[in-house]
Amino acid sequence: MADDSVTRAARQQRAVQQQVAAADAEAPTPDNGAMQAGARRYPEPPFPKQHQSKPGSEAELDPPPMYDAPYYKGSGKLEGMKAIITGGDSGIGRAVAVLFAREGADVVICHLGESRDAAETKAHVEAEGRVCHTISGDVSERAFCRNAVDFATKQFGKLDILVNNAAFQVHAPRIEDLTEEHFDLTLKTNLYGYFFMAQAAVEHMRPGSSIINTGSVTGLLGSQQLLDYSMTKGGIHAFTRSLATQLVPRGIRVNAVAPGPVWTPLNPSDRPPEGVANFGGGVPMKRPAQPEEIAPAYVFLASPQCSSYITGEILPIIGGYSGG
Q1: N or C end of the chain: which has fewer CB within 10 A?
Q2: pLDDT of 300 over the 60 cut
Q3: 180-187 vs 227-247: helix crossing angle, rounded to 10
């Protein structure tokens, strides 16, 4: 009896094996191109080899990042709201500023020194019919963060949304190559900056306000050459969940978006030219996101109509997970 069952099981396994082998032989050759699932086609590697000096310039990036989201239609999700966006001059911050304006918000964008990029962002926000102010400074300095919040509240009379987005990133191949100065600069910008901005902002926020932090896939999975940056992004995720719990009694929601590779000046100002050429090609979608593909998540998390029951969440937007 046992021998019959063993023989039958083995025969069944071989039959399934043969069926799968036949299906493998007939399977079409997979398309090795990048996934295109958006309203318009997005660039894919290889990109022109290029490198920029810090802090990087969107105006010099080739191809230009796509941030204006022409197929995104606003519907008043942020009507009458007032926002501060750090790192709002370029990249994800610029795309968020444009969509916030399209949804009815006025914005203050903070930037380090990229006045040309900031002016471009301001022009696009104003083209959406909203008010935009720019302020230059270093978010790693507590005094600047407090001044930025005070400036915004004086201009607008209130503050509804804080987007912590400014970041510093430079790779280091080995832990021995990561100097104390480098390590300190990354932590000061990416952690202290978020803390200082949030600490200043909550004093002016009312129930229904929100804080959105920019995390990273590196804070979820780590990164071999971005040890310090990954540490800060993991810290931002923990900061998000902890602050969210603390602010529940005050009616202020706190969430984070954790992007994968995004075509912004942050990366060409970090990577060597050869690395930039293949940037984003390693994710399942085989291309980096464009800023306009990330920005709607910030609208969703900022809008009381969309996410009033969401706080303490980390939303990954990383171009897919590998099945191994």
Answers
A1: C
A2: yes
A3: 30
pTM for this predicted structure: 0.92
Provide mean pLDDT across the span 282-307.
97
Q: How far is CA 87 from CA 94, 115, 135, 275, in A?
A: 8, 12, 10, 23
Catalytic residue, from 72, 229, 298, 321: name it.
229
Torsion of CA 304, 102, 286, 50, to 10 degrees: -130
| Residue of 298, 291, 305 whose CA lies nearest to 124 | 291
Q: What is the dihedral of CA 183, 188, 193, 194, to 10 degrees?
A: 50
CA 110 to chain centre: 16
Ordered structural domains, the chain, with CATH:
78-317 (3.40.50.720)
Nearest to 189 by CA among 218, 164, 220, 159: 164
Note the pLDDT tens digit of each residue in 225-248: 999 999 999 999 999 999 999 999
**What is Dmax (Cα atoms) for the chain?**
86
- Read off the DSSP letter of residue 214: E
Tokens 């809008």, residue?
A: 303
How far apart CA 97 and CA 230 sit, in angstroms, is 25
Where helices occur in 27-67 by DSSP H, the ranges are none
Distance, in Å, from the CA atom of 156 to the CA atom of 146, rounded to the nearest integer, reads 15
Q: Quick one: tokens of 166?
A: 């400014």
Residues 6+ apart with CB under 8 A from 83: 100, 105, 106, 107, 108, 159, 160, 161, 162, 163, 302
Reference 140, options 90, 181, 182, 191; nearest CA is 191
- As a whole number of angstroms, the distance between CA 241 and CA 256 comes to 9
What one-letter code names the amino acid at 3? D
For 255-294, write each residue's pLDDT tens digit. 999 999 999 988 778 778 888 999 999 999 999 999 999 9
Tell me, what's the pLDDT at 9? 86
Residue 255's DSSP bridge partners are 212
